Amino acid sequence: MKLSVYFKKFFQSSQSSGILLIFCVAVALTIANSPLGKGFQDFLDFEMGFDKIHLKYSVSSWINDGLMAIFFLLVGLEIKRELMEGELSSFKNASLPVFAAIGGMLVPALIFAGLNPENKYSNGWGIPMATDIAFSLAVIALLGKRVPASLKIFLAALAIVDDLGAILVIAIFYTEQIHWIYLLLSFGVTAALFILNFLKIKKFIFYLIPGIFLWYFLHHSGIHATIAGVIVALSISTNTSETKISPLEKLEHSLHIPVGFFIMPLFALTNTNIEFKSGMTDVLTSGLGAGIIGGLVVGKLIGINLFSLIAIKLKISSLPQNSSWSQMTGVGLLAGIGFTMSIFIALLSFKNDVQIQNEAKFAVLIASVIAAVSGALVLRISPAKIKEDFQD
């Protein structure tokens, strides 16, 4: 087999991006706990940009606020495609992952809030709401034919709805101060983008250039700039044709490799450089650690399966084809792999306290490992037979 074919298969594999993320986490943790740690942190804190247009930030800020906007652009494209022609395009198909995702966001947030009433960690309630698409799909892909395709699609749709929820949480609850002039300019650019859509402009370069200005205006408005990626995605033209590729699908296809194999690994490398210190494991029994681990591991499991059971019992939805409730338990656990999205929200939650950020990152890593291992084990030993009493 030629080398180019190997690379093609590597880049097309959802397993590969997840493995690369794991590798970057290991590298970041190794660097942070070695003599190179301080130098690496100094590099991440190095400021670059342009003072005259108020765009001079640290390297880590450019990654978290700039490159992550491209990640959110891809998420927005996936959401729109699913709504227009995918698993979320009909109520029958969308109902179960939507109900499951709502439960998977509400219950973890309630668990965290219940464990952290009015304390210094209270603002982190959004951390355990998130599901990492790349990691969760990579783990379920590793199980191969042991998991029915319908269940993999269910997890993907659930994770996409979950990301939409995370986007709304970031936009509404993690905005500190509004600068109205910049916000009005953002509305103007957004209107122009949807006018382009109305005029059926197909070339996505005409959406991406205004998107850069939208990112700038949103960044200075006080709303997190990554939301610009979602707005641009929702404005780009698509179609419901199975034979003709839309501009949205072309852009989505072209972004998968740079996002999966550059932006997300770089984010992981930048934000998991956690220096282990004596007493650090104490955070796992604190309100912060218990809220994150309890929310991601227990809250996701309960929320997803409880809301799914309600939807099925009300005959609104049905189980994914050829799946069982024990397999749904495994999926509920895998959805607790918060990783990149949870870390991202942790950075926003405790923007002015690096120590709490690091403690939250550590708890997210532990929770994600527990969720990944336990979910994979449950799915590996779960029978696919569906019990009659739960099928109606």
Overall description:
The chain has 392 residues and is mainly alpha-helical. Helices cover 70% and strands 2% of the residues. The chain contains 16 helices and 2 strands. The protein has helices at residues 3-12, 14-32, 37-45, 59-85, 91-115, 133-142, 149-173, 180-198, 205-221, 227-235, 247-271, 287-313, 325-334, 339-349, 354-381, 388-391; strands at 47-50, 55-58. It has a two-stranded antiparallel ribbon with strand order 1-2. β1 and β2 (55-58) form a beta hairpin. α5 packs antiparallel against α12 and α14 (339-349) packs antiparallel against α15 (354-381). The longest helix is centred in the C-terminal third of the chain and has 28 residues, at 354-381. It is globular and about 60 Å long. The chain starts with a helix and ends with a helix. Residues 1-11 and 386-392 have low confidence and may be disordered.
Write a brief caption for the model:
The protein is an all-alpha fold and about 400 residues long.
Query: Which runs of at least 5 residues are low in confidence (pLDDT < 50)?
Result: 1-11, 386-392
Distance between the termini: 49 Å
Q: Give the count of helical stretches.
A: 16
Which series of helices and strands comes N to C? Answer: HHHEEHHHHHHHHHHHHH
Q: How many strands appear in the DSSP assignment? A: 2
Global outline:
globular
Spatial order of strands in the largest sheet: 1-2
Helix/sheet category: mainly alpha
- Please summarize the sheet with the most strands: 2 strands, antiparallel
Helical residue percent? over 70%
| Portion in strands | under 5%
User: What is the mean predicted local confidence, pLDDT?
Assistant: 86
Radius of gyration, taken over Cα atoms and rounded to an integer in Å: 21 Å
